[in-house]
Amino acid sequence: MFGLDPSLTALLILCILCACIFEFINGFHDTANAVATVIYTNSMKPVPAVVWSGVFNFLGVFLGGISVAAGILKLLPPESLVDQSIAQNVAMVLALLLSAIVWNLATWWLGIPCSSSHTLIGSILGVGIVFSLVGGDMSLSGVNWGKAKETGLSLLVSPLMGFGFTMGVLALMRYFIKDQRVFISPKNNQPPPFWIRGLLIFTCTGVSFAHGSNDGQKGVGLIMLILISIAPMHFALNMEKDPFQMEQPARNALTAMEALEPQLKDPLFKVTSERMRAEFFDILQTLDKNKALAEVPQKDRLGLRKDILFIVSNFDKLKKEGAFKQVDKSTVKTIETSLNDIKPYTSYAPTWVILMVALSLGIGTMVGWKRIVVTIGEKIGKQHLTYAQGASAELVAASTIGLATFTGLPVSTTQVLSSGVAGSMVATNGTKNLQGATIRSIAIAWLLTLPVSITLAGGLYYLFLQFA
Question: CA–CA separation, 359 vs 194, rounded Å?
């Protein structure tokens, strides 16, 4: 497979299988986020609800793009995968996958809504930290801390948004909706009024699709990490792209960088700009020597990938730090446009990878859902979930996750939805309406997820390195 020897082929299959298992677990771990409200309001029966959710999780992965997947890959600097041997890369990938699977399974078994996103990102941080320490880098540059900070902020803010916005949506519903049946708990097995049922099924669909488009992309990012690590010859670059379509944008960007550099005031900005120009020269020299990407030697393909990622990340860094405030804006626009033309050479995923993740997540959604559903539906609040509470929590969850996917940020579907349900309970009868034991369990899992996954992944990676 991909020209690898039998042992590497077996390791590649094992790693991809682990990534699919992670997404499968993610499916049944997070199914409750979409189906709990429709089940507990009698809008849908359990089996049709999870099948419906599974289908839209599948569609979310397949149609949601790869912006979040690219964000996951950026958590590890490019040199983490370029400068290691394949055996070390396998150790890294297996460590982060196994630690994420173990923690997800443990919290599912206990029926605690826990963030798969937190788990995965903690695992990536763990192997990145150990990668740095093993190499004697006490500054821990084996982690892209800028991207980690951005990701961590999104994971922190999203549950607060779920809690607060759900309270606000519920207040608006009380103000505008006169039908008081919306604000009472379902009676026995009676279905809700037709229009309420339609709203709840719509929000279930929205959360399912949004979950697929965000959490599913994390699986796509994982498999691309595996493929780039073990079979870089085939996956470091998008081999379906024409190198000549990269050459002209690279020349345009280089010319613009040369015009822009004298306008930069800060000496540090100029140093970064000079390094970016040097990387552009490397790209153009590589392209000049080869007529097709398939002709580029393996080492040069990894170097080409590293050059592109370095330029893109440093351009974004300069922009955030205000380096371009007093320069010609049209020149900056030229660079930005050129980089947008170059990014698809590294930010991509084959259709078969997206399909594999979509199937894993979609099938997982239809299995093992009951434990977390019971927690969200019965154990967060002391009263039975009302129609309005369910609809408001899921409207906010679908909107928040959809916005995060659009901006390329991973968020926790579990945290957004469970905090939304908690917010709806508080908005109804205050904090006395919450079940303290469940809230404490969720909070403890939320606090422990990052340190546990970082420690577990880092420990496994160090252990595996002894055999690499």
Answer: 32
DSSP state of 192: P
Tell me, yes or no, whether 149 lies in a domain: yes
Residue range of the domain that includes 271: 237-345
d(CA 273, CA 161): 38
End position of a domain, from candidates 345, 378, 409? 345
For tokens 């997947």, name the residue. 69
DSSP SS3 for 434: strand
Assessment of whether the complete model's pTM goes beyond 0.70 = yes
Report if residue 25 sits inside a domain.
yes
Tokens of 156: 């922190």
pLDDT, average across residues 315-338: 89
Number of structural domains (the chain) is: 2
**What's the CA gap between 373 and 418, in Å, rounded?**
10
355 with 328, same domain: the answer is no
First and final CA of the chain: distance in angstroms?
Answer: 21
Tell me the C-alpha distance between 229 and 332, whole Å. Answer: 33
From 446, 432, 449, 439, select the one nearest 376 (Cα to Cα): 439
Are 162 and 419 in contact by the 8 Å Cβ rule? The answer is yes
In a domain, residue 1? The reply is: no
Which of 28, 29, 9 lies closest to 17 in space, CA to CA?
Answer: 9
Burial 144-153 (b: 16+ CB within 10 A, else e): bbebbebbbe
Q: Which residue has the higher pLDDT, 299 or 46?
A: 46
Range scoring the smallest mean pLDDT among 26-30, 140-144, 416-420? 140-144
Helices (H) and strands (E) in the chain, counts: 19, 0
The residue assigned the tokens 């150990």 is: 130
Among 231-235, 244-248, 260-264, 374-378, whose mean pLDDT is lowest?
A: 374-378
Q: Under a CB-based contact definition with an 8 Å cutoff, are residues 282 and 226 in contact? A: no
Last residue of a domain, one of 345, 367, 384: 345
